[in-house]
Amino acid sequence: MRFVIVTGMSGAGKSTVLKMLEDMGFFCVDNLPVMLIEKFAEIAHDDKLEVDNVAIGVDIRSGQALGEMSVCLETLKKRNFTYEILFLDANEPVLVKRYKETRRAHPLSKHGRINEGIVKEREKIEFLRQRADYIIDTSNLLTRELKHEIEKIFVEGKQYNNIIVTVMSFGFKYGIPRDSDLVFDVRFLPNPYYVPELRPQTGNDKPVSDMVKDCKEYPAFMEKLTDMLEFLIPNYLKEGKNQLVISVGCTGGKHRSVTVANALYETLEKLPYTVRLYHRDIGKDRIVKGE
């Protein structure tokens, strides 16, 4: 039986995840008082109940009782009740935006600024983040992407590392993405833009992709790039980083960067990380020029 404790920052998606788990066959209880968790675990582990998987939501709504959670977890461990902790997080600007959109008050800032409540909450639940088996940062995740991550962990049973890698193509003439952690310039590769029949196409089209990949520098570049990332990502993970944005840029973000980003995504997707692909500027030339 899997006994999952869903926790994390208010506004990071705990209620959404509990609904997803319920749809996946979990028996879910949200905002269970801390003093009842041990008794609930005892009931859940009773074979007579015939429940395979259980998930409970625990967060800052528990108030002062949240401070007893550490003792509760130690008690569960001593009684050989196995449990997993899923911690949902998001950065401050995203959390503030979500609260403003829903017009809800933060539990710790009902009469003050949302930002202040978020800071207080992060301090109070940091101990749960430190104990978490899985950490998912939902800042840039769509609901369907979050569902995919939950299914991967709790349905497919795949290995999960607490890091989401985003491979993003972009055009330098539109600016480097602000959230980039690593930026690679592929403007040294031959530019399909100067081939009239390829100009309206993108790196998603085979003729463009073939032209870029047929360049003699391409194989060596991809080999060195992949080798470096396979070294860097585990070390970022070791330092506690859970979001990594790898940006690949060319002049317009339509041909070379798209081709390289696609190839890099296909390679990294084979590794035990969550990998996303995003082409930021692929359609901007058409929009700007009115083609």
Low-confidence stretches: 287-291
What is the CATH topology assignment of the largest domain?
Answer: Rossmann fold
Helix content: 40-55%
Give the C-level CATH assignment of the largest domain.
Alpha Beta
Instruction: Please give the number of β-strands.
Output: 9
CATH superfamily membership of the largest domain, which one?
P-loop containing nucleotide triphosphate hydrolases
Query: Which structural class is indicated by helix and strand composition?
Result: alpha/beta
Question: SSE order in H/E notation?
Answer: EHEHEHEHHEHEEHHEHEH
Shape: elongated
Q: What's the mean pLDDT score?
A: 89
Q: What kind of sheet is the major sheet?
A: 5 strands, parallel
Strand order across the largest sheet? 2-3-1-4-5
Integer-rounded radius of gyration: 23 Å
**Straight-line N-to-C gap:** 57 Å
- Label the CATH architecture of the largest domain: 3-Layer(aba) Sandwich
Keywords: ATP-binding, GTP-binding, Nucleotide-binding
GO molecular function: ATP binding; GTP binding
Binding site for GTP: 59-62
Domain RapZ-like N-terminal: 1-155
